[in-house]
Design a protein that fits this description.
Number of domains: 1
Shape: globular
Order of helices and strands: HHHEEHEEHEHHEEH
CATH architecture: 3-Layer(aba) Sandwich
Distance between the termini: 66 Å
Bound molecules: S-adenosylmethionine
Helix content: 25-40%
Structural class: alpha/beta
CATH topology: Rossmann fold
Radius of gyration: 19 Å
Largest sheet: 7 strands, mixed
Length: 230
């Protein structure tokens, strides 16, 4: 882990209590291209959206009004900012903002048409458990979109990443988080991988949850069904 202390719930709460007042102008701008890429896709979809790790709600005013949005975050300090944004911007399509752990979502299975997690997977204590929750609450046929930084071993990007490591530590990131932690651990279909500005530092992964019919193994003899009796 490059000498980083293991992230736990308390360290997340402490880190984001410190970040909440300055988050929008410190980490906000560098991450904005990635947010825009995800939001453009989401706004072309219908129905309900769950934003996991909604933070200060920087994306909330940019979601299309036809979507119904629910946000969750572990940090009450970040959520406080998100709630005042909703009030100040008079956003009408926000169904709720809840203090909740992404690794134990209190929503039913298949509750949302779209689930998005932007810059979250590297800061959660247990990313594999969070991924399983994103899958669970997404409807079959729905999409899960993840925007994140993933580590590279070589090239210019790895140099930039090493240069960014102190900031990453301050944000509570795992700078050595690998894309395989997501792509090798999911049952979802990966439908798009997009490298994002600045300089490919971030990546958007777009997944579709298979329809149940596609997941189920075909029953024996399905190719020769019994002939109809009527
Ligand atoms: C880097 S910020 C990203 C915020 C926002 N998604 C954005 O685009 O700016 C990470 C957020 O994830 C939240 N977070 C960390 N661990 C979490 C967990 N286990 N459950 C829910 N939220 C969590 C933090 O409180 C923080 O608001």
């Amino acid at each position: 882990m490059n000498g980083i202390a293991r992230i736990d719930e308390q360290s997340v709460l402490k880190a984001y209590a410190r970040w909440a007042p300055v988050y929008d102008w410190s980490f906000g701008p560098i991450a904005d291209f990635g947010r825009k890429s995800a939001i453009d896709i989401i706004n072309g979809r219908e129905g309900s959206l769950l934003e996991v790790g909604v933070g200060t709600g920087v994306a909330l005013p940019r979601y299309a009004p036809h979507l119904t949005i629910t946000g969750i975050d572990l940090s009450p300090d970040m959520l406080r900012k998100a709630r005042s944004r909703v009030r100040e911007r008079k956003l009408r399509n926000i169904a709720g903002l809840y203090e909740m752990d992404a690794s134990e979502l209190r929503f039913d299975d298949a509750a949302f048409d779209t689930v998005v997690a932007m810059y979250v997977m590297t800061v959660v204590p247990d990313p594999v458990k969070v991924l399983a929750e994103l899958e669970r609450v997404c409807k079959p046929g729905g999409e899960v979109i993840i925007v994140n930084h993933f580590a590279q071993d070589h090239g210019l990007r790895s140099v930039i990443e090493r240069w960014m490591t102190p900031a990453a530590r301050a944000l509570g990131w795992h700078p050595d988080f690998r894309i395989e932690t997501i792509t090798h651990m999911t049952k979802l279909d990966l439908i798009e991988t997009r490298s994002l500005k600045p300089m490919g530092l971030f990546t958007m992964l777009r997944f579709r949850k298979p329809l149940e019919a596609r997941e189920a193994p075909s029953p024996k003899g399905a190719d020769n069904p019994p002939s109809c009796c009527c």
